[in-house]
Amino acid sequence: MRQLSLTGAINEALKEELQRDEKVFCIGEDIQAGTFGETSGLVQQFGPDRIMDTPLAETAVAGAAIGAAMCGYRPVADFMFADFMWIAGDEIFMKAAKWHFLHGKKVNVPVVFLAAMGGGFKLGPEHSQCPESVVMHTPGLKLVVPSTPYDAKGLMKTAIRDNNPVVYFYHKALFGLTGDVPEEEYTIPFGQADIKREGSDVTVVAIGQMVHFALQAAEKLKDKASVEVIDPRTLEPFDIDTIVESVKKTGRAVVVDEDTLRCGVTGEIASQIMEQAFDYLDAPVKRVAAANLPIAGGFLETEVLPQPQDVLAAIEAVLE
Amino acid sequence: MTLAKEDLILLYRNMLLGRKIDQLVIAGMATGKVLAFYHSGQGSEGLAAGVASFLNDDDYIYCHHRGHGIVYLLSKGGSGMEFLAEHYGKANGSCNGFTGFHNADPSKGVLGAAGTIGSVFPMTLGWGLAAKKNGRAQVAVGCFGDGSSNRGTLHEAFNLSALWKLPIVWVCDNNGVAQYTPIKDAYPKEDIADLAAGYDMPGVVVDGMDVLAVQEVVQAAVERARAGDGPTLVEGKTTRYRTHSEGSPDIFHIEARPPEIVEAFKKRDPIESFAKKLIEQQVLTEADIESIDKELEETAAEMDREATEGGMPDASLMRASLYAD
Question: What pTM, to 2 d.p., does this model score?
Answer without folding.
Answer: 0.98
